[in-house]
Amino acid sequence: MSARPALPSPAPTDDLRRHLPAIEPDRTLTDWGRSERVEKLLDRTLTEFLYHYWFRCEVEGIEHVPPTGGALLVANHAGALPPDASMIAKAIKEEHARPRPLHITVEHWFKGYPFLSMLVTKIGGVPAHPANVLRLLHDEQQLVLVFPEGAKATEKLYKDRYKLRRFGRGGFVEAAARAGVPIVPVAVVGAEEAMPTIAQVGVLKRLTGLIYFPVTPLFPHFGLLGAAYLPAKFRIRFLPPVRTDWLEESARDDRGLLQEIADEIRGQIQDEVVAMVGRRRSVWLG
Amino acid sequence: MSGRRVLITGVSTFWGGRLAQALERDPGVDVIIGVSPDDPTCELDRTEYVRVGTQHALLRRIVRAAEVDTVVDTRLIVDSAIAPAKAAHENNVIGTMNVLAACGGADSPVRKVVFKSSAHFYGSERDDPAFFTEEMERPHAPRTLLEKDVVEAERAVNAFAGRYKHVTVTVLRFVNALGREVRTSHTALLGLPAVPSILGFDPRYQFIHEDDIHGVLEHATREELPGTYNAAADGVLALSEVASLLGKPLAPVLPPWGTGLAAGMLRRLGLNIPPEMLQQLRYGRGVDNRRLKAAGYAFRATSREAVIDFAEHLRTRSITDGDPGYRYEREVEEFLRRSPSVRGADRLGLGRLSAEQLAELARALESLPEARRDA
């Protein structure tokens, strides 16, 4: 950010949160573009089926998701067309004592790709811009889910399953710390087997403009059928929240410290995933 | 302290004209001078109109001679469909520098500059945040000529603010306007039987109602608001939502790839979608208006209400279309304002009370005897 100090900033006012726009009851869309209607439709059909019958999700530690206030959920990410985000959102909807909407951060790429840009926004996807995350967590006190591994996780091959990639540069910790909200680590097992990637085809990736072009057991040779998941058993475990409000104002800019916390959270999730995979007797039956 | 002495540039535009009308009702404003190269397009009463462009020598003389303390610059072109690129650049960049030059100087009486800018400052890109706040910068350099001009104009205003610290400089970044009278490329597009869009995209749109445009300008003229403010109503709508409020289908006539090419063909067919609007139709834009609200401005309409009002205008358009509207007749106006022979109601503007003002007057008269009884 370049220095442009000429215009004086306005006198510091009290909390800007007071001035958030009121919710207009006649609208079915939020200011983020999320559609209650589309979300409900998808939830009642596909997500319901996948959650209960296809993946037979088992959830532990749901009480670690705070019932009020902002919180940042951090999870491991996997699968060519990753089903983990919608399963975590559904888990909160189904199991939590006070179900709350979950905002899922997605790559900016989605906003630029036709149709996906419409769909992803409508079902609660938010571009992973730090300002978006901060506004949701701090100003609107919402639940936000991030996958700090990003596309590095979804493009990795089956042979690397459950090996967590690098956790970005700790940006998510900074967002949570600046908002003063807890971080809830989430470990997911099953997504790696639901749509494993066998190979990546660089040429086709460039031709289609997709973020990656995977070869899965069903894609691309079975065409649309390639979007079908294999019926792996899902386990989602919410870990105890990591508080960030103890961080001093000055520590929130300390990149080294933020990176350290990020690595620690990554370690927690990695250990939990390893333990869960160890306890699992069958990929399909759990 | 005596009242304000205001100079409004671009008084021929909707923005400038409406502001002049609003300030005329304010007894705290002593003098209103409207300048623009074109005749005013709305009826002005005590505003003194001077036909002048942005030649800074002339403006400087007017500013000093009339001891103008507040300059409201509303002349920025924010729609590349209404002027060729070169003329727009001349007006937006060179014109802004000239206006600022006229306000500057050690002995200048100007104490406040309100600059009407545009949310095009932020552009509309894939990597944007969902809500721009005032201190954010666009993620990439401007893509369209118009956006470049807006950024450059604001840079000039910034430099002015840095140089003249005793002058209150307010920059207002307006989003797309909607209402019954304002005409832009967006009102033209939304006025079509179906709302054109890019296949596979449903961009987020934020509007400001036309009443809030002059409301915000008036607020900035009256109050002290140093710095930059986003001027946008509450609520960000999806284009599909806008279309359904208008009761129209969404027509994805533009392909997601080769959009510029298709837009060029549509332009030949008579449907002009300017490049900055193409960006908006793809990626949309939202801005954070909380700083302006915290500065004491209460918006009269939300984005949704602005769209609904516009929809009502569209439905009655065919009925009211025959009305020729207001035309500025220079000689008549001069006569009515300056001639000593004019003694009637017109000088005070009494013959021209609107229905609302009449109703208000009637209410005030009715309440009079009651007040007396209470006393």
Features:
heterodimer; A: 286 residues; alpha/beta; Glycerol-3-phosphate (1)-acyltransferase; 10 helices; 9 strands; 35% helix; disordered N terminus; B: 375 residues; Rossmann fold; 7-stranded parallel β-sheet; two-stranded parallel sheet; 13 helices; globular
What does this structure look like?
Chain A is an alpha/beta fold and 286 residues long. Chain A has 10 helices and 9 strands. Chain A has one domain (31-193, 233-279): Glycerol-3-phosphate (1)-acyltransferase (3-Layer(aba) Sandwich), CATH 3.40.1130.10. Chain A starts with 35 loop residues before the first helix and ends in a 7-residue tail after the last helix. Chain B has 375 residues and is an alpha/beta fold. Chain B has one domain: Rossmann fold (3-Layer(aba) Sandwich), CATH 3.40.50.720. Chain B has a 7-stranded parallel sheet, with helices on both faces. Chain B has a two-stranded parallel ribbon with strand order 7-10. The longest helix of chain B is centred in the C-terminal third of the chain and has 20 residues, at 355-374. Chain B is globular, with a radius of gyration of 22 Å. Chain A binds chain B through residues 1-2, 4-10, 13-14, 16, 18-22, 24, 26-27, 29, 31-33, 35, 108-109, 111-118, 121-122, 126-127, 129, 131-132, 135, and chain B through 126-131, 133, 135-137, 158-159, 161-162, 169, 171, 198-202, 204, 225-229, 234-238, 241, 256, 282-283, 286, 289-291, 293-295, 302, 304.
